[in-house]
Amino acid sequence: MSDVIIFGGTTEGRKLAKFCGEHKIQTVVCVVSEYGEMLVPESPSVRVIRRALEKDEMEALFVAEKPSLVLDATHPYARVVTENVTQVCQKMQIPRYRVLRKPELETKEQKLTMKSVKNESRAEITNSVVAVNSVTNVDSIVTVDSVDQAVEWLKSHEGTVLVTTGSKELAKYTAIPDYKERIFARILPDSQALLNSETLGFPRNHMIAMQGPFSLEMNIATMRMTGANYLVTKESGHAGGFLDKIHAAEAVGAIALVIGRPLKETGISLEEACQYLEPFGMETISRTITLIGIGMGAPGMWTVAARKTLLEADAVAGASRMIESVEKDLGEKAVMKAYDGKKILDWFEHAPQLRKLAVLYSGDTGFYSGASGLAETLRERQEAGKDQEIQLEILPGISTVSYFASRLQIPWQDLELESLHGREAKPWEVLERGKNIFLLLGGVEPVAEVSRMISEHGFGSWLVSAGKNLSYDDEEILTDTAENMMNKRLGDGLWAVIIQKKEK
């Protein structure tokens, strides 16, 4: 007997299976391919059935397993499976939810008119959308309603075709004249799929067996390798790498032939599905938020522990600049671009499928960092009885002051540490005590302004060392007296400054 039956084979199905395994929920996952089975995470509580089930087989399975919940996370184009699951669940009065991936974009303002196959004129496409301004050549996109329509269109257009719609409907492409020479197909690395493709007459060197989603660069390379004039794709949303395929076609001057979603569906999100699953769990899985100081940000400035934690996380949050600095390491990780601790915690709270969140901060987490604010907010929420399962970890990084002092080849243990970034302070009061000072500055010409302030208080002969973009290739470091620095225009933004008494 099983608590839950999942019809999967998609990214969403795999993530749901992982969630069930972690919560020790007795689960049956139904997939149709060998490769789909391989992607389901192994767990004692998760069992996989690998074959296409007819309606009577579904009914027999439900009778044997007696599930309390059925989740349909099949591909949007698997209409027959969805219809059968719906009908059997209705007949047997078993709660069933359709788990849907979000379309690439959802708002009317973000829809782009495309070229319609039916009338060869631009028309609004409701099921397949692309971001405004993301595609410059609108006429390079053609939309159809089905693979059959795509085949008919290709019959009347010469040129090489890269098909990325999978192996199940490859037989339809054999109706295209000279298909053996014209068609290249990217399919899953499944032995049966390769065998079926060969049986249909497709040459082995025209079969590209790889698992996606694929990056923009990979799509471009594949299209150039095959010499494709056309790219056939389904509107598979973000998880399916839809926009990267569209952009790749545009980059090589090819036409993207887009098969729109069969129909608009209603359902629940992956996050909502996980919330429905939680009551079936035998134990609560702890969740971890790790606040990571990434040092100055440049490659090589991370600690080994910080890098390891990032790679193991299934979600990453931080200001846009922080996220951009680790873009190549994100993979399939969930991403939240935000600096506000409350927003990050709210997002993590409402995504129960996520287990390990890495929150990135520049410099060190203990030196004028937003990490303290998030940590305090989490403690307050836990005292109020919320987020009890969340464990907090903090990893330090190389601070701005330690890095800058090392570049100036001076010790920093005697420096007074202060920040004027968004704050008011009186640095001359520190200098009056004979102490050197480190400052974080921000705003309009902040170096000139602080140099002017201390010069007016009698410290014009003291040395001001200013650093910007520290650790990066465009790092700037300049040292001069305060009197001279107040007349220099070094630029706006965030600067690190060390003020020290000039040696005689």
Explain this structure to me?
The chain has four domains: 4-100 and 266-270, Rossmann fold, CATH 3.40.50.720; 108-259, Rossmann fold; 286-395, Tetrapyrrole methylase, N-terminal domain (Cobalt-precorrin-4 Transmethylase, domain 1, 3-Layer(aba) Sandwich); 400-500, Methyltransferase, Cobalt-precorrin-4 Transmethylase, Domain 2, CATH 3.30.950.10. The protein is built from 19 helices and 23 strands. It has an eight-stranded mixed sheet with strand order 7-6-8-13-12-9-10-11, with helices on both faces. A five-stranded parallel sheet has the order 3-2-1-4-5. Strands 16-15-17-14-18 form a five-stranded parallel sheet, sandwiched between helices. Strand 1, helix 1 and strand 2 form a beta-alpha-beta unit. The longest helix has 14 residues, at 79-92. Mean pLDDT is 84; it is low at 104-138.
Strand order of the largest sheet: 7-6-8-13-12-9-10-11
Question: What's the total count of β strands?
Answer: 23
User: Which parts are unreliable, with pLDDT below 50 for 5 consecutive residues or more?
Assistant: 104-138
Which structural class do the helices and strands define?
A: alpha/beta
* Morphology: elongated
Report the helical percentage: 25-40%
For the record, the CATH architecture of the largest domain stands as: 3-Layer(aba) Sandwich
Q: Work out the count of structural domains.
A: 4
Euclidean distance between termini CA atoms: 85 Å
Instruction: Just give the CATH class of the largest domain.
Output: Alpha Beta
**CATH level-4 homologous superfamily of the largest domain:** HUPs
* Rg calc: 29 Å
